[in-house]
């Protein structure tokens, strides 16, 4: 049956010529039309709509498909006659051959260029990410590779006549990334060249701001004038509404003047920053301002600068109490416990900034306190009062201890003790610190009883105070309680594994009781921590020499005089090296090191004697005489040194000089038998009368025999 019979355009089954964009009627409209059939009967039939076969003016039914959807009442069966659910008919295509893959269409030149741009963007991001991870060399290589690809992209656009599609922003990003990577790798000249190209290109947005980067490079190179020039040029190109960046640049300008020791200009920059942007003033800038006042010796400005430093706004630190975070929460609330332990990054950042602020305040206070008033004590008192009144009582207590340390450095032990004793009734942490210092003070004064008493107080207040334990061990060491001292040193190391004093003293006490292997372990550990500490290397060489390991001893002593922070002019080390060479029979090296030791310390009797005897063995008597004379000056009561000088004259053939010297010795020491014997021998050689000396010799020998017989 023809469903289109009686309709206009029936020859064409799909004639949409009369459709004017009206959507098909919804079910709601159909119901409305059915309900209002009386009113709609006067209306003409819908244009292009489907009516009934009889042409009645009633609402038509919805359009339906003239093909089935593929469902059937008979289920599909697979192998074995079982029903299979396969609505898409995929099972029927199992035996058919798969259609060949369609060949991918070749990319157009524009699409190829867009793919290259995506690749360049990816490499720029990889280079920046690699730098953030700390691998600066690899980041620079990636940046160079990006630069090559970007230039290749520009050439391809020129070849394709697509210059209107040049991506200036991409070129800008590539150049900037390359400059940053060169700067990170300390390639300052390359970075400056690229930055110069960027700031001179007016197509790049905000390129003038990168003069700040150029100024930073000049600052690192200590080219202060060029850095100031770049900072000021950058400041001219930054709008006034970007206050944070402008204030940072002004601070950098002040830092440059400070480095040039132009304190007046630096003060102008810092005070201008303080006047217009106090909220941007940080503790480092405030500290630098105080340093400028200190350089000009302006005590009044130092006071005002210190008060400004104390009043700097500490964003995020207002409600943070260091004492509260030390207290563990009561109950079993694990969440509160984890927050108190400071696991979150925000709390760690707050604590870090608080430590930084305290460090600058303490440094400034220690610097200016002795210079503020007529006396250093008055200056410390003013600083302590200011700290207490401005909400820094803990730092004020630390300054009390710093005041005591000031007295210590000037050997004013009485005032230091008076200040430290004020802490005996304060909070445990401060009391422990003060008691530790008091113990050390009394130890220096050889008052070991008081030193041990205050060490016990410090340990009682803080069981994990490693330095207090060291002081206690030192007192035991001085009282010859070596085993107990060793136990206390080990306890201090258990509290603080890197307590250098405890490890060093442990090695000393082990050497004192003859446990050289244990001492060697202690000093080896200490050397692994300090690397080039001269005292440690000396002890290692000394222990190896006592153990008979002369090669290792020679190695340590040689390292001690050849290392950059060693002691190449230490006469004791040079003498020890000389003795080691002498033991192995290398007299040439032994002579060299003995002579070097004598050059730096000409009063060491062992060195002087060795050199004199060495020249005698070499029959170089003229060279031996000065050393024996020096020995006689060091030990004027010893006759043997003058006898050796006279002997050198006699062996040289200067008999007259030798005779004169022997006679002088005989007048001063008439009972010296050796001198009389040398006089007799020399007189015989010179064919002079010697009977008088022979009679004196017989008398002295008889007296010696009688003295020996009486003793027996």
TrEMBL record:
Pfam families: TPR_16, TPR_19, TPR_8. InterPro entries: TPR-like_helical_dom_sf, TPR_rpt. TPR repeats lie at residues 208-241, 500-533, 605-638. SUPFAM superfamilies: TPR-like (SSF48452). Keywords: TPR repeat. GO terms for molecular function: kinesin binding. GO terms for biological process: intraciliary transport; non-motile cilium assembly. Residues 63-75 have a biased composition (Polar residues). One of its GO terms (cellular component) is ciliary basal body. SMART domains: TPR. Residues 1-110, 321-345 are annotated as: Disordered. Residues 99-110 have a biased composition (Basic and acidic residues). Residues 33-43 have a biased composition (Low complexity). This is Intraflagellar transport protein IFT88. It comes from Zooxanthella nutricula. The lineage of its organism: Eukaryota, Sar, Alveolata, Dinophyceae, Peridiniales.
